[in-house]
Amino acid sequence: MAREKCLIKKEDKVKVITGKDSGKIGKILKIDNKTKRIVVEKINLVKKHMKPNAQNRQGGIIEKEAPIHRSNIMLMCNKCMTPVRIKMQILDDGKKIRMCSKCNEPIDA
To answer: What does the pLDDT look like over 72-93, one tens digit per residue?
Structure first.
């Protein structure tokens, strides 16, 4: 079984397209390619009950980001500021870069 490639990387700006947080924009914090889930900053916040421990002396209810499926987000283009699909382009020196499919601008700096 071949694994499909994820063209989204850590620190990319993405927009949620479905679910309770649809329309929100955030930065990718963590990617899990095995389960195809992504943790996005300030998206899909859940409340977690914590016991007091060394890091959290008081305990109580904390809010943290839960992972969402990668099919529910789209990468934001830096130039046209819209959610876009990604296409790959091979440069003359053989290097692959990600391109915006709408405005043909390179996404990688």
So the answer is: 999 999 999 999 999 999 999 9
Q: For residue range 20-76, list pLDDT tens digits in order.
A: 999 999 999 999 999 999 999 999 999 999 999 998 889 899 999 999 999 999 999
CB 86 within 8 A of CB 7: yes
58: region left, alpha or beta (phi > 0 left; psi from -120 to 50 alpha)? alpha
What tokens appear for 2 in the block? 């071949």
SS3 state of residue 70:
helix
Q: Where are the domains of the chain?
A: 8-76, 78-109
- Cβ–Cβ under 8 Å, residues 76 and 15: yes
Q: 7, exposed or middle or buried, with CB in 10 Å at 0-12, 13-18, 19+?
A: middle
- Domain 8-76, second-level architecture: Roll (2.30)
